[in-house]
Amino acid sequence: MVADLLLNAIVSGIMLGGFYAAVSVGLAISFGMLDIGNLAHPAFVILGSFCVYVLNQHWGIDPILGAVLMTPFFFALGAALYEVYHFSFERRGEEGLRGLAFFFGILFITEVALILGFGVDYRFVQAPYIDVTWHIGDVDLAWRTLLPCLVALAMIGALQLFMSKTYIGRAILAVAQDSLALRLMSINPARVKLIAFALSIATASIAGALLIVIQPVEPSIGRDYIGRVFAIVVLGGMGSFPGMLAAALLLGVAESLTSTFYGPSWAPAVSFGILLLTLAFRPAGILGRT
Amino acid sequence: MRNRTFWLVTALVVIAVFAASRLVTNDYFFFAAYVVLQYVVLATAWNILGGYTGYINFGTAGFFAIGAYATVVLHQLWGPPIPLLILVGGILSGLVGLGMGVLTLRLKGVFFAIGTLALAIVVQTFVTNWDYVGGSRGVYVIRPAAAPFFGAYIHYLFFVMLVLAGLSVAIARSIEHSTLGFGLAAVRDDEQAAEAAGVPTLKLKLVATTLSGALMGMAGAPLPYYVTYLDPSSGFNLAYAVNAIAMPLVGGMTSWIGPLIGAIFLGVIQQAATVTISSSLNLLLVGAVLVFFVVAAPNGLIGLTFRRRGKAPATPGAAT
Fold first, then answer.
1. If you measure CA to CA, which chain A residue comes closest to B51?
2. Does A118 touch chain B (CB under 8 A)?
3. One CATH from 2.20.28, 1.10.357, 1.25.40, 1.10.3470 for B3-308
């Protein structure tokens, strides 16, 4: 019986971890590679959920398809945000403290704007696969968690390919390593960073759709993800996708085990506890270079 | 002005404000003024670390709630007088601040900021699961109807918070004009250079974190008596964190007067907006004001006035 419970907890933890990776991948780009502490990233994920919700409610568009349709808008939003950030902070070399405070403010504005627009009720979407569950032996596989996990893996795989194969992707990796060297080769780091940051916000649209497929969403639940995503990115070694994926799976399984055996109200402490321990003892992450 | 003179002047101001408040007959004034004063303490405390050293603390709500929940525990046990509660809350939060600092202050500033955010959530999770202090259901704290000498209990709470506000402003001012303050400013401007010049940066940062955390805890200690019903989501409200950052940024972070002005300015606006418009809109307002000031007026209201006189104070650099 316990083995049964354990197996189910691990499987659902892996599904959860896949979804966490989808939320974190944007931050792995913005915080891990570009050094932009985008605290508002989870708020944009929630914004993505609500966009998908509106599309689904009014036109019956499938949530994941809806999210893909929304990515250009999120890309544009990210580009605009980076312009403001670059103009006001990066250019003056003040990005550390003021940049964080800026994103903290953006987080609040997004959240309260959503509350004013939609209220604090939980919203959910409809799709044919949401109520389907497969039973394989003793293990229950719910499509509402399996599909997000698969989509997340596909998205991260695609991003990894993009980063390693295309010209722009390599330029982003280069800017993460040494932006001065890039400037010496007469490439404008700000342009590359603009594209990378916009891309990171575009992933929030997809992550938002996955979130609302998994569970009903209300505007302020984004805060719960701030610690998780930063924990995952730091634990994953700042900007390495495989490291981030490993960290996300680890966290997902740890949280799932905690909620199964100690109760869901303890789950938040797991991610933050792991984060604090990581910061204290292994700031370079599990797979990170020191 | 010498530090001793400043403490004297602060004490006189506190007495004068309190004397003036005896003329107010509307009790609502005391409820509103308490909140504004509480923000004066929080903003000043935040600025001791954030403004003077450039390390951002997102966990204000955590330190604040530690003070508040220390009060709840002691109240359940035997209900000691408020000054003692403030002392206990301050010591506890100070210790947590110290521990936090030991864990993360060796890292880049961004990591410290994220660590503080994490700390607030860890503490909140523990409180939510701790039935003795009410757990997620929350806890009722019955406050006495009246306090001797002060009349209505809220007048007493108002006086307590007024004294705390005076105390924290005087402490902040004293730090600014001491060796500690100069050391902290050196950390803010260039930590490596400061370290190289023999400034014991880690020690100074730890002192600042402890002091800042302790003041936040002290601000939280009387809270259960003020609200009479405390649950984790109100005690750990992120609004405290955003306000504690927004207020010094709006006022100006390089000097003690910045958080004071910012707290009074934003605090009064929010109290007015809560009464006249709505409470969720006033958070939007704070967020918008925060973003506006960070982008457009990096030195806050103080910076704006100094700039007009043509002697802008140095921009506090980023701690990276």
1. A97
2. no
3. 1.10.3470
In this complex, do A230 and B290 lie within 8 Å of one another by their Cβ atoms? no
Amino acid identity of residue A86, one-letter, is H
Q: What is the complex's ipTM, to 2 decimals?
A: 0.76
Say if A32 is an interface residue toward chain B (CB within 8 Å).
no
Question: Which of helix, strand or coil describes residue A256?
Answer: helix
Dist. CA A226–CA B113, nearest whole Å:
12
Domain ranges of chain B: 3-308
Alpha-carbon torsion, ordered B42, B46, B52, B56, to 10 deg: -160
Degrees (nearest 5) of the Cα angle A261, A264, A266? 85
In the block, tokens 């509103």 appear at: B32
Name the token pair of A152. Answer: 């997340």
Q: Are A44 and A198 in contact (CB under 8 A)?
A: no
Tens-place pLDDT, residues B280-316: 777 788 888 888 888 887 777 777 776 555 444 444 4
**B201 contacts B228 by C-beta, under 8 angstroms:** no
Say if the Cβ atoms of B129 and A226 lie within 8 Å: no
Instruction: Check if A239 contacts B (Cβ < 8 Å).
Output: no
Per the structure block, which two tokens stand in for B304?
């704006």
